[in-house]
Amino acid sequence: QVQLVESGGGLVQAGVSLRLSCAASGSIFSINGMAWYRQVPGNQRELVAEITSGSRTNYVDSVKGRFTISRDNAKNTVYLQMNSLKPEDTAVYYCNAAVLRNTDYGVHEYQYWGQGTQVTVSS
């Protein structure tokens, strides 16, 4: 009953910028943390950046100073602005959201994932 839809990936050259978006829709009471992960085939999914409901942020060291995570709570949307892209940023990027849903048993938190969007950076 909750969907996360990502957009904004693509094939770009090193040094340019991309902006990823992820919009949550469905049966949503509110959203706690939101995050972006990435995964390269054969590797584990890696946390790239996360943002709390109060907009505190955290980044993996490899993207600090280049990537910025932000959110629009009115639109239930999280963004990832990626600047100075490098070939090693190539991966499938997934958004994640901790969604509070009002159920018959009270308000509970559930984790949801987007379908992933490919980012390919050529050298």
Key terms for this structure?
single chain; 123 residues; mainly beta; seven-stranded mixed beta sheet; 11 strands
Number of separate strands: 11
Order of helices and strands: EEEEEEEEEEE
Summarize the amount of helix as a percent range: under 10%
Mean pLDDT: 97
Low-pLDDT segments: none
β content, as a range?
over 45%
Q: N-to-C terminal Cα separation, in Å?
A: 40 Å
DSSP helical segment count: 0
Secondary-structure content class: mainly beta
| Rg | 15 Å
Q: What is the approximate shape?
A: elongated
Largest sheet: 7 strands, mixed
Protein model, in words:
With 123 residues, this protein is mainly beta. The chain has no helices and 11 strands. The protein has strands at 2-7, 10-13, 18-26, 30-39, 46-51, 57-59, 67-72, 77-82, 91-103, 106-113, 117-122. The strands form 2 sheets. Strands 2, 4, 5, 6, 9, 10 and 11 form a 7-stranded mixed β-sheet that branches. The protein has a 4-stranded antiparallel β-sheet with strand order 1-3-8-7, with no helix packed on it. Strand 4 and strand 5 (46-51) form a beta hairpin. The mean pLDDT is 97.
